[in-house]
Design brief:
Helix content: 40-55%
Strand content: 15-25%
Structural class: alpha/beta
Strand order of the largest sheet: 5-4-3-6-7
Number of helices: 5
Order of helices and strands: HEEEHEHEHEEH
Radius of gyration: 24 Å
Shape: elongated
Largest sheet: 5 strands, mixed
Length: 188
């Protein structure tokens, strides 16, 4: 038997195994994304339901209790510092707060993650002029937050009038606020 006969080296076998493993991981990732997209990412609290009360502290150290704003329309946003769409949406919410506060509307943003310093830093970077609140570990659970950002429009009666999961345009937010205000005044 000649000595130059080459046996199947381990390198091609490793490449084949690696290719099979990579393919399996890609298929698993695609299936996971599909299954997740078919699931319900809507929060537990839905339109028509009473908004759970909370008492949270802002980045300035001021306490905010949701029930103190009964009689006013509240735009309540849940976000995270690592969330790209949140970073895009927060300045719009801040502008809405500044423009609509004189009409009795308050916009609050609850940071559900991160260290307090990260939340303060992001609020400063984005120049947010609205109450930015720290989560207490329970408020996000009470509302059943499952995706970011999630925004609740809460009517003057303390009931949720609209829920947005994911990035929402300023137009959609203003339309929902207007509907909540009209419900208060009985206009249609």
């Amino acid at each position: 038997m000649p000595e130059d006969t080459q046996q199947d080296s381990p390198e091609p076998q490793r490449r084949r195994l690696r290719s099979v493993v990579e393919t399996a991981l890609w298929v698993a990732a695609i299936v996971a994304v599909y299954l997740w997209s078919q699931g319900n990412i809507a929060p537990a609290v839905q339109a028509g339901e009473e908004a759970p009360d909370f008492s949270l502290v802002s980045t300035e150290g001021r306490p905010y209790r949701l029930s103190d704003y009964r009689g006013r329309v509240v735009v309540l946003n849940f976000w995270a510092t690592w969330c790209g769409p949140c970073r895009q949406e927060l300045p719009t919410l801040s502008s809405m707060h500044v423009a609509m506060e004189k009409d009795g509307i308050i916009v609050m943003a609850v940071a559900l993650d991160s260290a307090a310093d990260d939340v303060r830093q992001m609020a400063g970077e984005l120049k947010l002029h609205m109450p930015v609140l720290f989560n207490d570990g329970e408020t996000g659970k009470k509302f059943g937050i499952r995706g970011f950002p999630t925004t609740f429009i809460i009517g003057t009666d303390g009931r949720v009038s609209k829920v947005f999961t994911g990035y929402t345009t300023e137009w959609s937010l203003k339309r929902a606020v207007k509907a909540a205000l009209e419900a208060r005044t009985g206009k249609a």
